[in-house]
Write a structure and sequence with these properties.
Blueprint (H helix, E strand, L loop, with lengths): L5 E6 L20 H20 L25 E8 L3 H5 L4 H10 L9 E6 L6 E7 L3 H10 L1 H11 L6 H4 E2 L2 E2 L23 H10 L4 E3 L2 E2 L3 H8 L8 H13 L4 E4 L6 E5 L4 E2 L10 E7 L2 E8 L12 E2 L2 E2 L3 H5 L2 E10 L9 E2 L18 H5 L15
Parallel strand pairs: 7-17
Antiparallel strand pairs: 1-2, 2-16, 3-4, 4-13, 5-6, 7-8, 9-16, 10-16, 11-14, 12-13, 14-15
């Protein structure tokens, strides 16, 4: 996947009514009642995204819909949009492969393509033994921590370390998403923490991209032209301009569009072309999905069993030893699923001109005091307020 920033394909499936908006990856951490609360939170976010910001020439977004309140028609199908997990802004600002790999492995703030990772090395040889990848949005963990804090502790102990105690994760009863077991690239990665890697940003991007725009008498269609005019994300990423372009293509087919249930970001593929292992085994065998289900996976691990007698660091890619987790990210793709329905039936007309008023910067919102407050959180765009990729 090295050198190929993103890919896309479309999967057709029979549309069906949505009775509940499920947890990302169809996760089963919540009780049935709590799953209902999560569904209501996501439903509220979708309604907000549909409203947009009319005072900024960015709404309403009539072709974006909430499947819970406006069921899809029988022609509904799922469009899978995928892109490379390695941060393009790091790639484009680094003088060499080794430099970009080292940079990307050094700071989760640089990992801004909806995929973050953490690397474990042998303490003696310093060879990589395991790399954990996550694409799980932080909002879900905020809700889980409020509804079932014991489950948060249980999951950290299962996936990060059995030695973790509640005080490592919570301060004065509030969950700290950037706790010491989820704030770097060497001690674990439980869920996404990069400020732009949020479910709210995914929803906002998808909804904003449904607006068709006309400027100087011509409809805007190109990926860079769309993102610069609608300002729904960062033009320098793999993900943002490509997602926006593909969603807008669907909007120009006069379709209604939404994020497919369950709303989330998911692993799409690991395709280690050109890799070799000491015993000739296919390296795909050592890539495992360990959280999520039904092709909606939010956690993956790349690790060689000790019985093999070698480690990840003994593998080679295009003849070069695997020294960084980022080398693996070069061959990982992340996906967003859109649902498309009522094709050819939308009566929404294009908006004249670009988005108007200044865009609020992407930021990590302060934890809301309750679930009702979480429903009211503003949907932030993916526009960065730091030079993380430069």
């Amino acid at each position: 996947m090295n050198g190929i920033p993103f890919i896309v394909h479309t999967l057709l499936s029979k549309g069906a009514n949505v009775n509940r908006l499920d947890a990302p990856g169809f996760l089963d951490d919540l009780t049935d009642a709590q799953k209902g609360q999560w569904s209501q939170i996501v439903s509220n976010w979708l309604d907000k995204a549909r409203q947009g910001r009319p005072n900024e020439n960015d709404g309403p977004r009539a072709q974006f819909f909430n499947p819970l309140t406006n069921p899809p028609a029988d022609d509904a199908h799922v469009a899978v949009i995928s892109w490379n997990a390695f941060p393009r802004r790091v790639r484009s600002s680094s003088p060499s492969d080794r430099h970009r790999w080292r940079r990307a492995d050094s700071d989760r703030a640089l990992q801004d393509e909806y995929c973050e990772w953490s690397v474990i090395r042998d303490p003696v040889t310093r060879k990589i033994t395991c790399v954990t990848f996550t694409c799980e949005g932080p909002e879900y963990w905020d809700v889980l921590a409020r509804l079932n804090p014991d489950m948060v502790l249980e999951l950290y102990r299962k996936f990060i370390s059995p030695a973790i105690v509640r005080e490592d994760l919570f301060s004065n009863g509030a969950y700290n998403p950037r706790n010491r077991f989820n704030d770097g690239t060497t001690r674990g990665a439980m869920h996404l923490i990069q400020p732009a890697n949020t479910l709210g940003a995914e929803i906002e991007l998808g909804a904003a991209a449904t607006i068709r725009r006309i400027r100087n008498g011509q409809e805007i269609m190109g990926a860079q032209q769309l993102i610069n005019c609608s300002r729904f994300g960062e033009a320098g990423r793999n993900s943002d301009p490509f997602i926006g372009e593909q969603v807008n293509v669907l909007a120009r087919q006069k379709a209604d569009i939404t994020i497919n249930n369950p709303v989330g970001l998911y692993f799409h593929d690991f395709n280690p072309v050109g890799w070799t292992t000491p015993d000739g085994e296919d390296p795909r065998k050592f890539w495992s999905f360990i959280r999520g289900s039904d092709d909606h996976f939010v956690r993956a691990v790349f690790e060689v069993p000790s019985s093999r007698g070698y480690a990840v660091g003994d593998m080679r890619s295009a003849g070069r030893a695997i020294e960084y987790g980022a080398q693996i990210a070069d061959f990982v793709t992340i996906k967003l699923e859109g649902m498309v329905t009522r094709v050819g039936q939308s009566t929404a007309t294009p908006i004249q001109g670009c988005r108007g008023a200044a865009q609020p910067r992407s930021a990590v919102a302060a934890p809301p005091v309750d679930l009702a407050a979480l429903m009211e959180l503003p949907l932030r765009s993916r526009i960065a307020d730091h030079a993380g990729g430069g």
